[in-house]
């Protein structure tokens, strides 16, 4: 395993990635007062359909409805008082935005949130609920970043990156510490992939605890930049994305890519109709409101691609990270009826 | 507290009700292999709306989607082999039906299920999924009972009553043992009331553990026979019922009434629109699919009637039994849009 360095890498301890099991354990202590320990659900009916024993780590029940509060609160509570006093800023289509607004509220500092105009209504509502100051941008990543930069210049606020940051990755990694405490016998974890913050943290913690554990990513076909990156051996970005999974449209960063390249065993690509089927199954059998990005892990487990892969034969007890539950009921209903 | 007896009372130990803390602890051991220990969820957003700290005991995540498997498996696994070999029979609009089918399947015996023609589709599907033999009846309780009796005569199957039975009540009581282990500081428990099996078990267990705990019932306005019974001091039945809460249309039995009369501190009556609002809040904030009967506890906590009651001042940490999650998505969507 090659060591990595460079000015953007905050920590090169251990395996040389941006985060490690120590920074993840530190995060777990730091964020404990601000996050829920979420339950793990299972269903013999879904197991019978999947042909595997599945353990759903329900981050949809997390504060602000998604795992993002883990990374956001770790980043924000790691700031020293002087940095924190100027507030924080981020750009996000939703869950990270709400998480930053909530974590900033808990710390008592201002949060400036740049949101693209196509963000889901329920996610924008969450930002408002936690008192974040919303700045609307265009949909493009360039527009978001330029608005973000302007806020930084005007206010001195600290950027809380949604994934490409040691503290964010370490915070997200706490979800896999918890899952492996709750169900130690898990041999495989399936994680939605977008910018790679969640899967990097999950993989770094899980492989430190159990080097033989399999880490699989689930990615939507309409935003399969990570699968393409793994195939090409370098970060690939796409000119545009098209998927119902609004939380999975970002591309890998320079801190998450090395972890994805080295520690993610395989990426399973699924189409939107499989995601919608999985959302429906979560609602009808698990009784859980799951957003498209949160349902993609189940969609991957049920896919033919998974059944044909070597991972199918090597896994029997599979943890699925249900990343979030922020879905407008109308959107769920309409997606089911389009099928 | 007056002692009670009579030929229908299977146990007169302790306080003289049909069940007691010992029969409930026995049930907990008997059913442990067949039920989930369901998680307790909380939400600071909902707490802020309610003005109380709420703990949602999520029986919607229970096997077959409702608490009913607790009483059904306790009743069915308490049968001796000769009784069990002839199978079991019950009549139910849904959740108890599926629970009996599942528990019978687990014991390897036949289940005959009499279902009224107006039962929700998803609940009928559950019965089919577990291999129950369905016998359709008319909607009236007379029709259900007469079909049930015929099956008993023809097959020798044992009737598993949905609520008026020591083993059913004892099984349902295990939900409150669990809740008080998970959150010992709870001072009030709110329970949906219909035939009274769940609330009897919950009250008997909770008041044995903590005599000062408050037990409140939540009942739909269109089937408020229990509130009328409490007011009249005797069992009142209604000529008809009209509520979206399809699981709450039964009337008290002779074994549940004494417990409701003596141990239920108050009954909060709510209308259907409050139930639908609570279902929506469960979906949008808790991220949980909750059927109308399961959402009624939250509706009661949020009601003006509760705020005006003495119980409001005496409660600060409230357990809410979310009894089940079997709701057709279409029904949820349509109810929200009728508002």
From TrEMBL, chains A, B:
<dbReference type="Pfam" id="PF00291">
    <property type="entry name" value="PALP"/>
</dbReference>
<dbReference type="GO" id="GO:0070179">
    <property type="term" value="P:D-serine biosynthetic process"/>
</dbReference>
<dbReference type="GO" id="GO:0005524">
    <property type="term" value="F:ATP binding"/>
</dbReference>
<dbReference type="GO" id="GO:0030170">
    <property type="term" value="F:pyridoxal phosphate binding"/>
</dbReference>
<keyword id="KW-0702">S-nitrosylation</keyword>
<dbReference type="InterPro" id="IPR036052">
    <property type="entry name" value="TrpB-like_PALP_sf"/>
</dbReference>
<protein>
    <recommendedName>
        <fullName>Serine racemase</fullName>
        <ecNumber>4.3.1.18</ecNumber>
        <ecNumber>5.1.1.18</ecNumber>
    </recommendedName>
</protein>
<comment type="function">
    <text>Catalyzes the synthesis of D-serine from L-serine. Has dehydratase activity towards both L-serine and D-serine.</text>
</comment>
<dbReference type="GO" id="GO:0006563">
    <property type="term" value="P:L-serine metabolic process"/>
</dbReference>
<comment type="similarity">
    <text>Belongs to the serine/threonine dehydratase family.</text>
</comment>
<dbReference type="GO" id="GO:0008721">
    <property type="term" value="F:D-serine ammonia-lyase activity"/>
</dbReference>
<keyword id="KW-0663">Pyridoxal phosphate</keyword>
<dbReference type="GO" id="GO:0030378">
    <property type="term" value="F:serine racemase activity"/>
</dbReference>
<dbReference type="GO" id="GO:0000287">
    <property type="term" value="F:magnesium ion binding"/>
</dbReference>
<dbReference type="InterPro" id="IPR001926">
    <property type="entry name" value="TrpB-like_PALP"/>
</dbReference>
<dbReference type="GO" id="GO:0018114">
    <property type="term" value="F:threonine racemase activity"/>
</dbReference>
<feature type="domain" description="Tryptophan synthase beta chain-like PALP">
    <location>
        <begin position="32"/>
        <end position="324"/>
    </location>
</feature>
<dbReference type="GO" id="GO:0003941">
    <property type="term" value="F:L-serine ammonia-lyase activity"/>
</dbReference>
<keyword id="KW-0456">Lyase</keyword>
């Amino acid at each position: 395993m090659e060591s990595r360095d460079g000015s953007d890498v905050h920590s090169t301890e251990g395996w040389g990635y941006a985060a490690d099991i120590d920074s993840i354990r530190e995060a777990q202590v730091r964020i404990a007062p601000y996050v829920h320990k979420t339950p793990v659900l299972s269903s013999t009916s879904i197991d019978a359909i999947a042909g595997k024993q599945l353990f759903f780590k329900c981050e949809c029940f997390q504060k602000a409805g998604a795992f993002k509060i883990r990374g956001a609160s770790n980043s924000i509570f790691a700031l020293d008082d002087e940095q924190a006093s100027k507030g924080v800023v981020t750009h996000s289509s939703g869950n990270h935005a709400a998480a930053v607004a909530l974590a900033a509220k808990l710390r008592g500092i201002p949060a400036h949130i740049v949101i693209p105009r196509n963000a889901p209504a329920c996610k924008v509502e969450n930002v408002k609920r936690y008192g974040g100051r919303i700045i609307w941008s265009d949909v493009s990543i360039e527009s978001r970043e330029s608005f973000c930069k302007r806020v930084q210049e005007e206010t001195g606020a600290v950027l809380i990156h949604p994934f490409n940051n040691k503290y964010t990755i370490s915070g997200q990694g706490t979800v896999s510490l918890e899952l492996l405490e709750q169900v130690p016998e898990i041999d495989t974890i399936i994680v939605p992939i977008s910018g790679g913050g969640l899967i990097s943290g999950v993989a770094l913690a899980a492989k430190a605890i159990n080097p033989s554990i399999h880490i699989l990513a689930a990615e939507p076909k309409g935003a399969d930049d990570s699968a393409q990156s793994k195939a090409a051996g370098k970060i690939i970005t796409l000119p545009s994305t098209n998927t119902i999974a609004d939380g999975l449209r970002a591309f890998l960063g320079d801190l998450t890519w090395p972890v994805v390249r080295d520690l993610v065993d395989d990426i399973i690509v699924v189409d939107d109709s499989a995601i919608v089927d999985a959302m429906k199954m979560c609602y009808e059998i698990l009784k859980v409101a799951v957003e498209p990005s949160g349902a993609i892990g189940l969609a991957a487990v049920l896919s033919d691609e998974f059944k044909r892969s070597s991972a199918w034969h090597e896994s029997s007890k599979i943890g699925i990270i249900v990343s979030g539950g922020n879905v407008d009921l109308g959107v769920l209903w309409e997606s089911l009826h389009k099928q």
